[in-house]
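Schema walk-through. Below, the input block comes first and the output block second. Nothing else is stored per chain. Lengths vary across the set, and this one has 399 residues.
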Amino acid sequence: MSERFTGSFTQQEPIPKAGIDAALRVLQSGRLHRYNVADGEHGETALLEQEFATSVDAKYCLAVASGGYAMATALRAVGVKAGDKVLSNAFTLAPVPGAIAAVGGDPLFVGVTRDLTIDLDDLEAKSDQASVLLLSHMRGHMCDMDRLMSICDAAGIKVIEDCAHTMGAKWNGTWSGRNGVMGCYSCQTYKHVNSGEGGLLVSDDDDLMARAIMLSGSYMLFERHLAGPPKEAFAQIKYETPNISGRMDHLRAAILRPQLADLETQVTRWNDRYRAVEQGLADTTGLTVIARDVKERYVGSSIQFLLEGWSAEGVKEAIARCSARGVELKWFGGAEPVAFTSRYDSWRYVACEPMPATDEILRGIVDMRLPLTFSVEDCAFIAQIIRSEVSAVYQEMGA
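--- output ---
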């Protein structure tokens, strides 16, 4: 047996001591609910919102229970109703079409390119079929946002960005989540800040954020939001917006604030690991490394590559061989959903037409997490294992 990697692909770094200390203070206070604060206090949740809004140059921010809740809230805030079509990526994860379905909308899938971004030609062709796009920056890959916004602005399409994998990323100098009318972020364990579950929603629009705050369950306490619109924005909205409770609590916010303060350092560390794998896989026979645009400032918390033109049996064999050597890869091309690797034709609550060009790309997508518990040297070693096993299987296939 060849040398084996022994690290865990699901082990995260510990919560920073500052976060643990802050969490203990919240627990000792007994005041966990975001609106339960002592006189003169703002509370951890309101402070997190204020700090995150500042960090991405947004006017407003709302902290909620999950990234999926943030997306559903954004869709409700922009007015999506039962039966409305909502454009979204064919290459994404289940919470994205799930958020559309949660508000009664019907996902209308847009194709994927070999760069793993939304197909802008397909988007333009379908731009007359819906008035909202829930754009997933899937696995941290950002498309040409300048062209996307041009297409959507011309067609009157409101853009909501799913930034679950792009907190800390930019396109052409603009923060991910700041191109459309609302941006949604995840704080789930495998994302860029970790509170187990949690989400953040940003916007510059008074009306949309007022609706989002009311939807989250503010109990008319909207004036306690440091990063919320003025009370005048709620004058009518407070009477006509249902409470669909999904607030973040002080405990999770306390854990997140020190992580947010250290995000730039973490981005650098992720990208060091990403580049070690990227360089190790370069020019591997039968394997295509995903090109990154020079306008994209990405966060390499995971890496993807393509096994283009491979048979299903060949892909499975390569993944099995890597697994035997301790390297955990996920494949988006399987006929059956496994863990998070479902694809658009797995979600049978959605009526959709076949997408042959997209199917061909999905058949070859292989995905790997890059936790910060790995060293740069670990990542270089992992790349050696993938290179060795993929090359061996490719040669055996006689390709």
